[in-house]
Amino acid sequence: MRNEKMCSLRRAMNLSQREVAEAVGISQSSYAMIEGGYRHPRKEVEKKLADFFNVTVDELFFGEDFSTAGSTEGSGKGKAEGESEQP
Length: 87
Hints:
The protein is 48% helix and 0% strand. It has 87 residues and is mainly alpha-helical.
C-alpha cells in the first residue's frame, strides 16, 4: 500500500524523490519502492526518513499520529478509579 504520508510530506516540501533519497543516503529507486509501498526500509533508514520529515517512525510508517497524544487531562484517563485529585 502506498505511503501517502511520506508522499504528501515530500510534496509539501516541494522535493523530488531523488532529493529525499540523496538526503537520507539511499537510491532514488529504493525511495520510490518505499514510498510506493513495495518495500519496507531497514530500521536505520526508517529513522533517517522520519527525522528528515520531522515526524516519528510510527507516524510515517504506521499512520500513528501522536501530535495530540499524551494529554489525558479532562479525558478521564490517567487515573485509577477512586484516585483523588490531590497534588
